[in-house]
Amino acid sequence: MARPREFDINDAIDGAMGIFWRQGFKATNLPDLLEAMGLTRGSFYKAFGDKENAYLRSLLRYDETIVTETIRALESCESNIASDCLKEMFRSSSDGNIGCFICNAMVEVAPDNQEVARLTKSMANRLKQAVLNILVKSNPSFPNTLQHELADIVLHLYFGFQALGKAGSNEADWENRLKIILAV
Where is the signal peptide (predicted)? Predict the structure, then answer.
């Protein structure tokens, strides 16, 4: 009879997500990962198999929590002014300069890993659709192609905001930049 798991899988994945998000995939070694996850080597290998699988599970967890929460917040905005709804995406994180896990994964891992590329593209598309929905709600008379282009620009602005935040230079007035872009 197999021994029952003695740890909460979501807590372990949250620990992995945190360290991968801060340090990246390549810079995270197994001892760091085990410590962040609160697991022994045996429990880690039994539950996750390897570091890459733990990373994939972390990306999925990020999608289930952070991305889904962001989309929910965008969808629940009652303002008809797009910048009022979208400005929350451009608030500095209280977690310090860790940037965006999607951005980090796109740059570091996706070029060499098709599954990570697929997951990050899917998350980015979900975020873009939420932005597009706000743009359509706030400016229903705008041509469809313009709304799609603006959604793409806002998403890229968001990823740039996150990347600059990770680099520690995020002091620009992003809310005002968003208003300028959406004034088109």
Answer: none
Looking at the structure of the chain, the number of domains it has is 1
How wide is the angle at C-alpha 127 spanned by C-alphas 125 and 131, nearest 5°? 115
pTM score, whole prediction: 0.88
| The pLDDT of residue 47 is above 80 | yes
Q: What is the pLDDT of residues 156-176, one digit of tens each?
A: 998 988 888 777 766 667 778
Which domain range does residue 87 map to? 9-182
> Following DSSP, what letter does each residue of 135-172 receive, concatenated?
HHHH-TTS-HHHHHHHHHHHHHHHHHHHHHHHTT---S
In a domain, 1, yes or no: no
Instruction: Measure Cα distances from 99 to 23, 56, 84, 140, 159 in Å.
Output: 11, 18, 22, 32, 9
Domain membership of residue 123 (yes or no) is yes
Name the token pair of 155.
């998403």
Query: Could you tell me the two tokens for 56?
Result: 């994939």
Can you read off the two tokens belonging to residue 120? 């990050």
Between 137 and 178, residue with greater pLDDT? 137
